[in-house]
Amino acid sequence: MRRVRAVITGEVQGVGFRFSTREHARDLGVAGWVRNLPDGSVEAEIEGESGAVERMLAWLERGPRAARVADVAVTELPVAHEAEFSIT
What we know:
about 90 residues, alpha+beta, Alpha-Beta Plaits, 5-stranded mixed beta sheet, about 25% helix
């Protein structure tokens, strides 16, 4: 199990980023959450099998079609054993 915090910058608000992230996370079977930050970035915590977390991080580097991702800053976190993925 692995848990990471990702802060995604670029044109990532107002383009369906959180909703697409939740759907992709559910497809991959990872838990955690995603939210908009006041500075225009998006923050997510992702937890699950290491390979699934890596696939989720790779998707975050692209995001949904309307997004223009500039950077994804990743920090490792302790596993929290969440059960689902939500928008907060």
